[in-house]
Design a protein that fits this description.
By secondary structure, the chain is of the alpha/beta class. It has eleven helices and six strands. It folds into two domains: 81 residues, Orthogonal Bundle (SP0561-like), CATH 1.10.3910.10; 106 residues, no CATH class. It has a four-stranded mixed β-sheet. Strands 1-2 form a two-stranded parallel ribbon. α10 runs antiparallel to α11. It is elongated, with a radius of gyration of 18 Å.
Length: 199
């Protein structure tokens, strides 16, 4: 089977169940894939690129583990990936942030305690002035949360500090959508489970 960074984890597992062990060996975050219930929810929604971000590792590491199982990496995708610049481009909205207009939320304690910070984050966003930027401090890039908020009109930027702490900036792109959280409901349990359990 040919794979790329866009290949879903569910496709890998369907093609070769040994993928579960291979992926789990990459990072402790992925041990949860051994749980069949969680696997059924997470695997179809997360691709290799998403998983690499969550695990704080390279897509190439996934490729190597999977090639050992007989998967074939799409050469065009692999070459394109390897030639990407390693230098992060900081977007204008982050460069222009007024420190006084940053709402900071550190969710590391919540996650370490096994608590789902999703509702706390939503509550902060609902009350936060539209001109503010939410800064989430975490130990991994919250890809599922970012995907949810992208659909709500948010832009984001994630920066991994030398100590491994992850800073994710989230800003409402259109002030006209400021009231969008008034009717915002918790997304499907599967979306929240991905955010809550892949930690």
């Amino acid at each position: 089977m040919k794979i790329s960074e866009h290949t879903r984890i569910s496709e890998l597992i369907k093609a070769n169940p040994a993928s579960i062990d291979a992926i789990s060996s990459i990072n402790k975050h992925f041990e949860k894939l051994r749980n069949p219930i969680l696997r059924r929810v997470v695997a179809p929604r997360v691709c290799i690129a998403d998983a690499a971000k969550i695990g704080g590792c390279s897509v190439d590491l996934f490729f190597k583990k999977l090639e050992d199982l007989g998967f074939e990496v799409d050469n065009k995708v692999a070459v394109a990936k390897s030639t990407e610049s390693a230098i992060q481009t900081i977007p204008d909205f982050v460069k222009k942030i007024d420190a006084a207009k940053i709402t900071e939320l550190d969710v590391r304690t919540d996650l370490a305690s096994g608590n789902d910070p999703f509702q706390k984050i939503m509550a902060v966003l609902k009350q936060m002035p539209v001109e503010n930027t939410l800064l989430i401090i975490n130990t991994f890039e919250p890809v599922p949360l970012i995907n949810i908020l992208n659909k709500k009109g948010f832009k984001h930027f994630t920066q991994i500090k030398p100590d491994g702490i992850v800073y994710t900036y989230l800003k409402q792109a259109n002030s006209k959508n400021v009231n969008s959280f008034e009717t915002f409901e918790k997304p499907s349990n599967s979306d929240v489970i991905i955010f809550e359990q892949l930690v």
